[in-house]
Amino acid sequence: MHGIDFIQDLAVILTVAAAVGWACQRIGLSVVVGFLVAGIVVGPHTPPFSLVTDPDRIDTAAQVGLVFLMFGIGLRLSVRKLRRLGPALLAAVFASALVMYFLSRLLGLALGWSNPESLFLAGMLMISSSAIISKILHETGATHERSGQLAMGVSVLEDVVAVVMLTLLNSIVQFGGAAHGVPVMETLGKLGAFIVLAGVAGLLVVPWLLKRMSISADGELQTLGLAGLLFALALVAQRAGYSLALGAFLLGTIVAETPHRTQVERTFEGMRDVFSAVFFVAIGMQIDLHLLWEAGWLIIGVAAFTFLARTLAATTGLTLIGTPTKDALRAGMAVTPIGEFSFIIAQLGVTHEVVPPKFYPLAVGVSLLTTLGAPALTRRSEQIADAVLVRQPRWLETCLQYYQNWLERIQRRQSRNLLWQLSRKRIVQVGVGVLFVTGLVVFSKQLFALVEGWLGRDWLFPHGIEVIFWAALVLMTLAPLVAIWRNLSAMALLYAEVSTKGHARQKTLRPIVETSLKLAAGVALFMWLLTILPDESTAKWLLLLSGLFAAVALFVLRRKLIYWHSELEVELQEMLATETKMTATTAPWLRPHEDWNLHIADCLLPDLADCQGRKISELGLRTKFGCSVVGIERQGFMISLPTPETVLYPRDKVLLMGTIEQVQGGKKFLGAVSGTPAAISVFEEVSMEALMVPLWSRAVRRTLGEIAPMKAHGVLVAGINRSGVRILNPRAEEVLQAGDEVLALGTPAQIRDFKAWLREEPAAEG
User: Fold this and answer.
1) HEC states along 39-98?
2) Are residues 735 and 651 in the same domain?
3) Same domain for 662 and 688?
């Protein structure tokens, strides 16, 4: 029974992952290392310990785990975060990727490897593991240091590099390993078009769907609906010629733009942890220990190369954007571990026989060694950076100082460039519009096949679906095309004004320059549309015919199209509005000051934390350890500079400020779990019961305020029935009388206690 066998495999995977992961955590290693080792131990290549042997089931487990892992990575990356990180850091990551690419190609050449093998090696080593790096930064307390923030930003942006590399390497696989035959620009253009098309469609559909579900559906149905969307978009990406990872990653970035992000993270936290572990264990199961042993020296050598090359590449990229050399060096040492994307790239090459089988254990072995070495390297990064800077040549220090001063002058000059400031937004809008239309047209064949399979070719009338689909496609592209042309026209007017300003014949030259620029833009648009039209003659003629009708409709609906596009643009901009969060990147007052030896670290309170339900003032953190609580993140909401009366609750993320020793002591104290059983919740036992006040009751002729049932018995009096007259939510001044029927709210024990008290005679008092 295949289903039972798969469940058995999952049971083995999760049990072994939990055991080995716990052991690694106890000795201070990353749990990812434990997951990989667990997979190697119980996989099919290590008899007699092989508990999971079927390759198909292992591959299925890996694919399911990959979807949830990439969704979690996407949730940490959003357009808002990219905007906060800024284009400078993006340029640094791009430069770092180029340096790492050429260094890896040189290593492949030195090892005598073929061109595809060198390319796949570069793909494996160019991308760090954001999941592993975030864990290491948290464990070493470097999350809120300047170098830690830079390292986290680099690792997040390298996820984007990973998506691009996966697409390019997938194209190499399709071309049979002939890297020189891969149309790189065409491949990147299609990837950009697919991402923009899926992103715009997702930003319009997913937030609306989540909002409707949050109003009309409970949490269970919301989780089911989002999980269905997750697998659906992963399949869409796979059908479009990409990987499941891309679709899951895209949905994560889309959800990250919505107000439902915190809720989704909380809902999927358990599933993400479970299936991420499944992915890493499944990766380990596919490793042959014999190949790992045979490639031992190669793995050690490539790991040493990775430590040096990745540090050099990241340091170079960050230095190019003006980052102080010490911070750049420390961040470079923190981004050395490789991980999940490297496994996917190695698996892609080995599965399609583009690279030899040794690449798979090579990726896992290098990941293990870099993950083991990175924590020690990160902890000692300041001392290593100081030692390197002391020994750097004088001429290099002078050149770097001159370059940073020059860069500052360029940045100040650019901020005063009015032409760039006015046209920057329009350039972005034109780029997004071009990619959106390209995506619609380039992937129209797949969309048409999907619609045709759903409705049939002759829907409504012969060849009806064909005519309706292409006509609808043209109508969908009209609004963005009008917007592209309006932006280009505005930029032509702006450039003509600036270029002829101060000229003696400005009034004559300005319209000539403007018309020439518009003519050039029109020709470029025509050539672009001609390039992306489908090759099929039927589709091309239908598009051209629909275009003629569209040209006529353009004059009639021109104002309406402009209005629709403006509404769409406003809606998208509202979704992408920059969100202010209290972090060390957005709140300058939270940044540690090295001269004062102040550091910031966050601590997540466990569910059974001893400090839960206590006020900050009661904990005495400043008295005991010398650190202070400067912020609390609770369910996605930020409490900046909380008062001493603020109560801490389970799952609060607390920001502590102090020296390294003070912060570590505070973290250990807040995370302490003594194992004392917590009070059992009686929430489900709360009920209402009607109680009769007897003639002899001590409550007769006394007010509710005097009785104080809530204080004395924990019972709330919700109502009084007096001779058929019901008094709901009575006030404290209400006097009880004999024969009153009191509606009491509480647990069974509390109600029994209150009932016994009501039945006692006054003589029994005192």
Assistant:
1) HHHHCCCCCCCCCCCCHHHHHHHHHHHHHHHHHHHHHCCCHHHHHHHHHHHHHHHHHHHH
2) no
3) no
Q: Whole domain around residue 276: which residue ranges?
A: 31-391
CB-based burial label for 47 (10 Å; 0-12, 13-18, 19+)? exposed
**Higher pLDDT among residues 535 and 196, named by residue:** 196
99 and 243: one domain?
yes
16 assigned to some structural domain: no
Distance, CA of 664 to chain centre: 27
Residue bearing the bigger pLDDT, 169 or 328: 328
Beta bridge partners of 692: 741
- pLDDT, tens digit, for every residue of 603-622? 888 877 888 888 888 888 88
Domains identified in the chain, total number: 4
| Contact between 343 and 283 (Cβ < 8 Å) | yes
Residue 109 CA from chain centroid, whole number: 36
| Residue 279 token pair | 């992915």
Q: Which two tokens stand for residue 295?
A: 């490639």
Nearest C-alpha neighbor of 733 from the set 704, 761, 759: 704
- Stated as kind and residue range, the H or E segment containing 367 is helix 359-379
pLDDT score, position 521: 84
Asked whether residue 426 is domain-assigned, the answer is: yes
Strand 741-746 relative to strand 716-722: parallel, antiparallel, unpaired? antiparallel
**pLDDT tens, residue by residue, 432-461:** 778 777 777 777 777 777 777 777 777 777
Same domain, 93 and 58: yes
Instruction: Evaluate the CA torsion angle 550, 551, 556, 562 in order and state its sign.
Output: positive
What values do phi and psi take at 312, rounded to 5?
A: -65, -45
Sequence-separated (6 or more) residues with CB below 8 Å from residue 283: 36, 39, 62, 343, 347, 364
Average pLDDT taken over every residue of the chain: 78
Q: Domain check: are 286 and 354 in the same one?
A: yes
The sheet with strand 653-658 has its strands ordered as 599-604, 653-658, 628-634, 637-640
d(CA 136, CA 155): 12
My answer on whether 710 and 754 are in the same domain is yes
Give the DSSP per-residue string, 434-468. HHHHHHHHHTHHHHHHHHHHHH-TTSSSTTHHHHH
Across-strand partners of 628?
A: 657
Q: Percentage helix, strand, coil, to 5, in the chain? A: 70, 5, 25
Q: Shortest CA distance to 514 belongs to which of 499, 493, 500?
A: 493
Q: What angle do CA 266, 639, 153 make, to 5 degrees?
A: 65
- What is the spatial distance between Cα 666 and Cα 514, in angstroms, rounded to a whole number? 65
Which pLDDT value is given to residue 437?
A: 79
What is the C-alpha separation between 641 and 635, in angstroms, rounded? 17
CA 287/CA 300 separation, integer angstroms: 17
